[in-house]
Write a structure and sequence with these properties.
The complex is a heterodimer of chains A (about 120) and B (about 525). Chain A has about 120 residues and is an alpha/beta fold. Chain A is built from four helices and six strands, in the order βαβαβαβββα. In chain B, a hairpin with a 2-residue loop joins strand 3 and strand 4.
């Protein structure tokens, strides 16, 4: 079964390119331009992983993660942000929850895809 | 008759002594009394003489000698009288009486003119009182002087007395310990020395012109100065008071210098911290702003590489657009960096306001604060530095956002909205940027103080209170001002009022219209 990734990204050009990459990597992709839209999409078609920006209108990445984790503590999350220090793929994990992996922008796409593969491995 | 005559003759020639006529007991009474009086009269002048000779400081001592002579003369008449009882001689008695009379009259005459001067002399009791009072006053003065010198020695303010010297020079006349501490000059070095030679050149350059000015104008002078001293950075505030000599020329300057080094250091540090905080915020913001276009460009380059050839023109357009976004950011950083010393230029305030509002709108999204801009109907030409105006507006907007957040914290259902309006009145020649928030408004008690440097209602560590001060400084530099009021509908409204830089023709038309 194809894993479904929910992509929350307010920059449409970034979202388009990400969608391309993820489709090519063999995932099903659901796009959302902000946090509230992402919540609606998550209800409609529950994702296997959340790939999100932090700064977004209406509901930011932090709020989105908190609200999704209330119902899906096992949902793996990958954050892409311009605020993170250089590097990439650092994982933060709270007890009883799936890890949050942080990627600084610009995103190293090969590393991201490898990380997604690990996180979504059965 | 003959016997009577002979008796008379006998009396004249050899008067019979009263001792032969008087009863012996009466005679004895006279003799003893006269001898006692005479002896007493002789002993009194002896006492007077001893007194006068011992008391060298006696005033009018000649009077005492006159008294002594007068009393001796009186005593002598008594002895002569006793002598006359046995061997009467009217000549002898008369001459002695005459001498006594002369001395008595002289004494009596001399005494009267002396009386007022003698009366003017203080009595011993008065003298004693006077001496006691003088001693008490001296004790008081001593205590007061001791208090005064303890006060001056312990005064935290540096005290110094300068004596003017020819050629606009000065000499230190006196300094206190606080002076020694503040300027690193010991009292022994300073007193009598030439300040120009003693003080570090930086301090001398800072203070000597002030001293000369004070001495020349003869008026009290206040000044603040700061310099690097042998004891490190020092800042002080001085009050100089000129003192005039007998000729009416200023010959002394009394100075007190208050050490404000700590306050100044704190102030400088706070300003520096405020700048660093601004720089920190700016850098974080810039990093984020630049990461977005870089991310998109990178993704699209990759997309072009891996995709079909028809995607290439699209990818090139996207990458070009993102690179331009980065170029714009770089241009803004450059403008900020050069804002400090840039010359004022004529520019349209509307896009600057729009840029500031855009920046704040992106930041305020996190706190769910809505920021709206009601655009200007026409361009708003003003004069100044665009980057500084943008920074000033960001401070106003940041305060508005914090006010909204504060209200929201107290009442989660309260609206959180910042409305920015651009107005222009060509008749008054003013452009107005109104920043209205839905916060708690400005308390009446604080209305006077919100523009004060370092005035802040924020928690320690969250703001230093320079934002509005900075904004006001920018407004002043642009020939404008900031007004604050609480609108009836609630919240606070700050109006940044700037002078329109109209071209003369348009201004004239506006006046006529």
């Amino acid at each position: 079964m194809t894993a479904r990734i929910l992509v929350a990204e307010d920059e449409i050009l970034a979202a388009m390119a990400l969608e391309d990459e993820l489709l090519r990597a063999g995932y099903e992709v659901v796009l959302a331009p902000d946090g509230l839209a992402a919540l609606t999409q998550a209800e409609r078609s529950p994702p296997d992983l959340l790939l999100t920006d932090l700064r977004m209108p209406r509901l930011d990445g932090g709020g989105l993660i908190r609200r999704l984790r209330e119902v899906r503590p096992d949902l793996p999350v990958v954050v892409m942000t311009g605020y993170a220090p250089p590097g990439g793929g650092e994982a933060f994990r709270r007890p009883g929850e799936a890890p949050v992996t942080v990627f600084p922008k610009p995103v190293d796409m090969d590393l991201l895809v490898a990380t997604l593969r690990d996180l979504l491995a059965p | 008759m003959a016997s009577a005559l002979s008796l008379f003759d006998q009396t004249r020639i050899a008067r019979p002594g009263l001792c032969q006529i008087l009863p012996p007991e009466v005679l004895a009474l006279h003799i003893v009394s006269d001898l006692a009086i005479g002896l007493a009269y002789f002993s009194i002048p002896a006492a007077i003489a001893v007194f006068v000779m011992r008391r060298r400081d006696l005033v009018f001592s000649w009077v005492f000698w006159l008294f002594a002579a007068f009393i001796i003369a009186c005593g002598t008449t008594h002895f002569v009288h006793v002598w006359g009882l046995f061997s009467p001689d009217w000549w002898r008695e008369g001459i002695v009486k005459a001498v006594c009379a002369v001395i008595s009259v002289v004494t009596a005459v001399a005494l009267w003119p002396l009386l007022p001067r003698a009366l003017a002399l203080p009595s011993p009791a008065a003298l004693r009182r006077e001496v006691e009072e003088r001693r008490a006053a001296e004790a008081r003065a001593l205590r007061s002087e001791a208090r005064m010198s303890a006060f001056i020695a312990n005064l935290p303010e540096a005290l110094f007395v300068l004596r003017t010297a020819p050629g606009g020079n000065f000499r230190y006349e006196a300094v206190n310990p606080a002076f020694e501490r503040l300027f690193g000059l010991s009292r022994a070095q300073a007193e009598g020395g030439n300040p120009e030679a003693l003080l570090p050149p930086a301090i001398a350059q800072a203070v000597l012109p002030r001293w000369r000015q004070c001495a020349a104008e003869g008026r009290r002078l206040d000044y603040a100065a700061e310099a690097e001293t042998p004891n490190g950075f020092r800042a002080w505030q001085t009050v100089l008071v000129p003192m005039q000599g007998a000729d009416g020329q200023v010959d002394q300057l009394l100075g007190t210098a208050r050490d404000v080094t700590e306050t100044r250091r704190l102030q400088l540090g706070l300003v520096q911290n405020a700048r660093l905080a601004t720089v920190g915020t700016m850098c974080a913001g810039l990093a984020h702003e630049m990461s977005q276009p870089l991310n998109i460009a990178t993704l699209w380059l990759r997309r072009a590489q891996s995709g079909a050839a028809e995607r290439l023109p699209q990818a090139i357009a996207v990458v070009e657009g993102q690179l331009r976004r980065i170029a714009d950011l770089v241009a803004r950083i450059r403008a900020l960096a050069s804002a400090e010393d840039a010359a004022p230029v004529r520019f349209d305030a509307a896009p600057v306001v729009a840029a500031a509002v855009g920046t704040m709108a992106r930041q305020a999204v996190d706190e769910d604060v809505e920021v709206t801009l009601e655009p200007a109907p026409a361009p708003l030409p003003v004069r100044g530095q665009p980057a500084r105006l943008e920074e000033a507006l960001l401070h106003l907007l940041a305060n508005a956002r914090e006010a909204c957040a504060a209200r929201r914290a107290a009442d989660p259902s309260a609206p959180a909205r910042i409305t920015v309006r651009l107005l222009s009145d060509s008749r008054t020649g003013e452009a107005v940027v109104e920043v209205q928030d839905t916060g708690p408004g400005i308390p009446d008690a604080l209305a006077e103080r919100i523009f004060d440097p370092f005035f802040t209602t924020k928690e320690p560590g969250t703001g230093v209170g320079l934002g509005l001060t900075f904004a006001l400084g920018v407004a002043h530099a642009m020939g404008g001002r900031i007004e604050a009021h609480n609108p009836v509908e609630g919240g606070a409204c700050l109006r940044l009022i700037l002078r329109l830089d109209q071209d003369p023709q348009a201004a004239a038309e506006a006046q006529r219209g």
